[in-house]
Every structure is written in structure tokens, then in C-alpha cells.
Amino acid sequence: MPGNGAFREVVVSLDGGVVGAIWPFTVIYTGGVNPLLWRPITGIGSFNLPSYDIEITPFLGGLLDGETHKIEFSVTNSLNVWYIDANLHLWLDNNSTKTVGKLLKHDSKPLALSLNSKFEGLNGTFLTRAYRSISSEGWVKSSHGKVTTRFGQEFNYSNSMEIGKGGNLQVVNQTINFNDGVSFRKSSSDACSFKSVKNFRLALFSDNFNQGNDTLLSVSNVTLGFNEKKYKNENFGFGTSDLQNLQSGQGVMVVRNNLVVSGVGSTQQVYQYDNNKFCFFRNISSSNYTIIHDKVANTCHKSEHGSSRYWAQQMVVIPK
After folding, report:
1. What pTM value is reported for the model?
2. Using CA atoms, how far apart are residues 86 and 114, in angstroms rounded to an integer?
């Protein structure tokens, strides 16, 4: 399939075995879909790429055997340009002469990937689905005692794509559900646990209309959503946080002889974060390179039903 299809994943391997994966949020840079959409509001993550965590503590016992080990990164279905970088976080135990550990369980099921397509000429549909789960458990013994760590990941992916009008029409709806969690416990205490539930959304509509005289009217609409909820149990300092970041844009370009001669683009973004102690809210809109609405709230209080309400600390409304 040209372009290797819609699905991508970053796979993390230790000595040839899969220990974790990342199904990344779809970042659209400032030239993507329609350049008029992303000035001055750029696509989510385009100037600050999201980072992700992989827990390899259950494998620590094997890594401390004095031998050389290899951590590798690969991208499923990638093209020839994918930049990957990572940091390895290590904590040293100054009160122990030797740290030992053992991997108890590891289950990494193969990627389940399906693609169904139906085409006549350049027109047709694609439906791509994927699923993966990874889990591991191991203990480490140090000056802190014997600590057992569990790490788990579960992924679901769905992408539907319609191509029509000889390739001029494109409609995409994509959803990524990416959940992971880690827990650890000492033999004499209850487990501390942390869980992250992520939902990444992409919706795209793009169409070209022939206006004659070598002129096209290019219309595009795009929606991006980055949502994440985090949960910690009481032994981990009980708390929850909720991040919702939704962005939508609409653009029209007049293209004559393959050159853009005029156009208009508008973008709206709503960002909302709440961790029970701190709230932040921003609703901002732009059109034709100009901010036309900007509302910020960063103080919240709980209603009688326990939900957060936002008090606006700053509001800027700029008329067209």
C-alpha cells in the first residue's frame, strides 16, 4: 500500500524482545492539510512534541548481570524519515552494595493489525484496525527492601478513510485509545498504583472544486483531540487529573496554475486541565492570521456536586 498505510507505532525492545510500545498522537505541522489554518495557532504538539514513558523496572534484574544489553526502537510501517530520541532514567542506591532482581512474568502479544479496502480506480475506502497489549512483572531488592513492580499497556486503533472524486475528496476519522499503568509494592505494604487513560482523535475533510480557467477551490476541515486522564491510588498520594485539548480548523484556498492566489483560514482551540487542586482553561480562536477571541481562566472551586467550575482571570475579545 502506498505510504505504508495509516497505522504507526513505536516499539521498544530489550535484547530483541518487545517490552513496550507507543501509539503516538498525530501531530500536524504548520504546512499540513492547509497552511492557512496554523497561523498564529499551530497544531497541537507541533512546537512541543508529546513525550511518553515506558517502565522497564521489571527487567532490571536481567540488566544487572554484568553483560552488555541493547535497547532498540523501531517504527511499524514507517517511511524513511522518523526521528526517535529517548532518555533512560536511572536511580542509584547509595545504601546498597548490590541491587538484585528477577523478572517474574512477561506477556507481549503480537500486534493484531487488519486492513480492509474497496476500490474502483482512484475512489474507494480503507478501514484499518489494530490492537496490542503488553504486561510485565518483576521484583528488585535493594536497601529499600524487596519491591515488586507491574507494568501494563493496552492499545486500540481505528482509522476509516474515504477517497472520492478521482482522489480530490478525502475524509478521515481516526481514534487511538492508549492506556497504561504501573504499580509497585513492598512485601509488607499495600500496592501504590498509577494509571493513564489516553484518547487521541483525528477527523479530516478535504475536497477540491474545479472553477475553470485552471483554478481550483480547495476546502478543508480538521479536528484534533488530545485527552488524558490520570489516576493515583491513596498509597501513591491519591488524586486524579483530566486534560482535554480540542482543536478544529476550517480553510479555503483558491489555487490557480498550482499557485495559491487567495484564501482564508480559521482555527479554534479549547484547552482544559483539572487536577482537583489546580485548574486551567483557555478558549482561543483565530481567523486570517489574527486572534479574534481569547479567554483564560486559572482559578477553580468545587461545586456542590464535586465538579470543577472556572473563574475567569483574564478575558481578551478582539473584534473582527
Report:
1. 0.87
2. 29
